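Box S2. Input/output pair 1.
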Amino acid sequence: MDFRWLQDFLSLAEVSNFTEAAATRHSYQPAFSRRIKALESWLGVELIDRSCYPTKLTPAGERFRRTAADMVQNMVDARAGILGEPAAGQETITFALPHTLATTRFPQWWKDWSPAMGASSCRLLASNVHDAVTAHVAGLADVLICFHQAQQPIFLDPDHYDRVAIGSEWFRPYVAVKRGQPAFKLPGTVKAPFPLVNYSPSTFLGRMVDLIVQSAPVPVHMFKACESDLASAIHNMIAAGHGIGWLPESAAAESVAKGQIKAAGDNRWSVPLTVFAYCDRTRSGAAVQRLMAHLRESTIVYLADGAKSAPLAQGAR
């Protein structure tokens, strides 16, 4: 059996879509589907119910999901043991989170959290939202930190996963400033559509842009100028004047402060995002439990501009 088959299966179990799961595994769908079939052949049972859409696990697949996650975690633990144990008394928490949060907000978070964590250290697995979710579900990360939006929710079974709301920010359109004026304007016109700098279609933020455009207050006229999975790449293309693109506020804050880019539209062109921290209750060690308890008891919720506010409403947790 190929170890990758287990990771493929866990990815598919999480997103319930072969195309999206293949994308999170950086694989072509035909090859991804063959590996899922190979795993089913090796086990001698069907794991995926392909008769419905979206696809779902068979009863055997549901039973095997926990086993697969444990097997992946055991391999990760074995590798860590071979590479060497952490210093005596030190616990390492592995976080899976989007690149944007890893580079803009996590450094301050860890500075605030670490006093309560004692001798704990951290390891970051930075990727896109879906890869971060998949890494956590597969047991490769102790804590998942990611964006959540009601129109594109990240669903993790609340009976299995603990979650705490730790932040909020807006997802807004931005444009370069040239001689004090925006380089392009929303919503564009038939004769002069604006260039869109956008995320790959399969990504969480890419789908958020689609939802915003579909519900725009007026018709939108645009053409695709550039596409990337990374918010940092989108930001750089916007700042260089290649078009309008949507960014989490934290990814745009520094350039906005310098006057290099500005918001291209008001809240009608934006959506609020909540940032949640998740952990798997069945796998949480002492350090993770301390962290989640600290987050639950904290009176701080982090806003995109670095300010701190009262906690989000309990219903958001």
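Box S3. Input/output pair 2.
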Amino acid sequence: MDYIQNVIETERIKTAYYRAGEGNKQKLLVLHGNISSSVFFMPLVPYLEKKYDIVVPDLRCFGNSEAKPIDARRGYRDWSDDIYALCKALGWKKFNLLGWSMGGDIAMQFVVDHGDMVKKLVLVAPGSPYGFGGTKDEKGTPHYPIGLGSGGGTANPMLTVAGQMKNDFIVKDVLNKYLFKAPFRMSKEWEERFIDAASSMKLGAEYYPGGFQMSWKWPYVVAGDTGILNTMSPKYGNLNAFLDVDPKPPVLWIRGDDDQIVSDHSMMELGNLGRIGMVPGWPGERIYPPQPMVKQTRYFLEQYKEKGGVYIELEIPGGHVCILESPIHFISALDAFVSK
């Protein structure tokens, strides 16, 4: 089924979004991840619209939403503020919130900023709450200087070049190699739509991947102050404030059993890439171990629980987009969680 994408003028940006199931009692706002757009959730909408009034926007710099610069010094707040403006424009005051990958981190920031609006929170393969790259243990202890090995200088060069050259073959290879668990493949039609979505992101120092600085310490790059990847640096993307929100929405954390991106051995994180010999000069496990992203999220949510929150961890078959690989697992878990 084809859905028509709407564009709404908010007080911050022009936001493109899909909406389906309007009139259903339960509202569900869905946030996509990095190098993607709302299109990545569209295969699930025909099932979700049966129970939910669902809105899936394109985030700033992605898809068909307006591309304005990202101030990484604000962490995920540029997107959180955009989503709040969208909710105001739509008249949404209370809803369930789902974030996938980077969208999960944005969702946690939204709870920090507007927790009274969120009934329940679903995190699908979220990035570590301590940032992507640049930390070395389950407590999220940063390397020194803070931001070392994270941010704009850590981008997959193949993706950046592919975006600049509009090379769909490279984008397809990266998507299938890292987003899904082999041998799973989306249909050719959806694969092409995903490639178009990934290629739609805005490129540049203020967009993707963002700026960076150099360091004398391995891996020689430090997060800059602008652009998408720098928002995820431990320098700016730390989400510890989430632990003290009040009220605390219940959390459902869903992850794939073979995620290549958000993992304790991520194929996008320099500590692990150095360990397996893909980035030369690795100084060893003691100095620069792989970032244990899953352990970090579990440690973080255990603290949330100790402070009075509730969370459920669910592992389902699949990779970074496990909800497309195991849709029945995902939808049944979502329905059970929201209906409680």
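Caption for Box S3: Residues 62 and 201 are 4 Å apart (CA to CA). Residues 6-339 form a domain with the Rossmann fold fold (CATH 3.40.50.1820).
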